[in-house]
Amino acid sequence: MTRLRRRLPVRLRQNGKLLAACAAFLGVCWGVFGSGTVRPYAVSAPDTTAGAVTQDITGTKDLFDTSVAHQITLTFRDESYQDMLTAYVKDGEKEYVEADLTVDGTTIPSVGIRLKGNSTLAGLTWKGESAGRRPAGRPGGERPEGFRPPEGFQPPDGFQPPDGNQPPREGRPPAEGDEQTGDRGRRRGGMGGFGAALKAEEPETLPWLISFDEFVEGRRYQGHSQVAVRPVTGRAPTMLNEALAISTVGAAGEPTQSFAYSAFTVNGRSSAPRLVVEYLDEGYAENLGDGVLYKSLATGSFTYKGEDQTRYASDFKQVNKVGGTDLQPVINLIRWVDEASDEEFAAGLPARLEVESFARYVALQELMLNFDDMSGPGRNYYLWYDLGTRRFRVVTWDLNFAYSGDAFGGGRTGSHKLKERFLATPAFKKLYEEQYAALHRKLMAGGILSGLLDDIVRGYKLNAGAGAVDADAETLRALLRERAEATSAG
C-alpha cells in the first residue's frame, strides 16, 4: 500500500481528504439532480498545506555558482527505468522514477526524476527503435498526445535537424565548401537541434527533470523543488547557445533562470558536463513576488473556450498558490484579447499587461533567433500575474533553440494572438522597435554578449569530463558577429 501511495503525485496525496470530500459531494449532487449537467470549476478555499516547505537542504556549494566545479550523480533501479520508458513509448506519459541523488557531495535519497521536453525528445530511440513522439509534420514520426503546431508554423531559415538532412533554402544554392547549407548564416545553425539524437540506453545524455519533493513532501534543495538537466546532443553537446540565451535575458533586465554546468553520472555512466537550469517552480514564483505563475503547455493554445476552467487543462498549468487562486485571471485575459476591438486593445492592454516588458520579450526572441518562443511549437513561456498590480508579465523559458539558424534571417514562428495583436497596434509596435534598438545597442553592439560567453566557457571548463568547447564557442561568436551586423539597422 505504501508503494502504491508513493506512485501518486504529491499534490494528489496532499489533498486526498479534500478530493474525497468533493467526490462525496458530487455523489450527493447526482442523487439530487439526476443526470442534469454539473459544470466543475477549479475554485476552492486556500490550501495551507500545499507547497509547505518542511526541509530545505543547504548542500556544500551554491548549485548555480558558475565559478566552481560541480558533480551530480544519480542512481536508480534499472527495472524502474524500463517501466518508465515503456510508459513513455506506449502513452507518452513521463512518469517519475525514484532515485538517489548526490549533489556536490550531499546525498539526497528518494528524489523523483522524469524525462523532460517535447521536441527535444523527438529523436529518442530505445533498443534501436524510435521512442520519441515527434511533432506533427516531422519526418518519420508521430505527434505527441494533444500536440497541435501553431497555425502557419515553419522552422526558421537555416535551422538544421541533428541529422543534417535539411535542404538549403529554395533559390539559394550551397556555397562552396558548405556541404549542408546554402549560406554563411545557416552554417551556424543547429545548436540544440529539433529532435536531437538521444538513446535511452545512455541515460547520462538524456534531458531530466529532478524533483526533490516528488517522494518526500515539502523538501527543497537550496530553495528549489525542481531543477532541469538539459540534454547532451551530438551536434552541440555543450549547449552554450542556451546558456548564453539565458544570460542574455538576464542582461536585458527580464526575469530569467540561474544555471551552471556540472559533471554528471547516471548509474556509473558519465557524460560531458551537463547544463543544469533553475526550474520555474513554487520557489521561483515566491522570488518574483506576490503573484501567481502559470506555465503554458505544449499541448495548449491561447484560445477562449468559455468560463469552465476544466477546459483549459491542456493549455495552462498553475505553479503556485494552488487552492488559493485559480485560472480565472488567465481566462479573463484570453477572453479580453479575443473580444476587444482594436481601439479597446490599444487603450486597455497596459492595465492588463506590462507592455514595456512584453516589448522587450518579443525583441529579445527576435534578436536571439529563438523561433520556439510563445508562438513556437513548444509554446515555451510562463505568465506571471502580479496580485498587487493585477497585470501579467511574460516570462521566458526553454531557450535551447536560441542562437540557431540564419544570422541574417529572423525567427519565423507560428501564431499567438496576444503577440500578433501587440505588434499590429501602432503604439505597441513603436515600443517594440524602441526596445529592439536599445537591446541591440546594449547587448549586440556593446560587446556584452561576447563577455557573457567568455564567462560561460570558463565555467564549463571547470568541470570533470569537459571536452573540446572552444570550437563550439567560436561558432557561436561568429553567429553573434553576423547577427550584430544583420541587426545593426534595427
UniProtKB/TrEMBL annotation:
Pfam families (alphabetical): CotH (PF08757)
PANTHER family xref list: INNER SPORE COAT PROTEIN H (PTHR40050)
Organism annotation: Nonomuraea ferruginea
Coiled-coil regions, chain positions: none
Name of the protein described by the UniProt record: CotH kinase family protein
Keyword presence, Transferase: yes
Listed GO MF terms: kinase activity
The organism's taxonomic lineage, starting at the top: Bacteria, Bacillati, Actinomycetota, Actinomycetes, Streptosporangiales
Keywords: Kinase, Transferase
Residue segments, region Disordered: 125-198
Keyword Kinase: yes
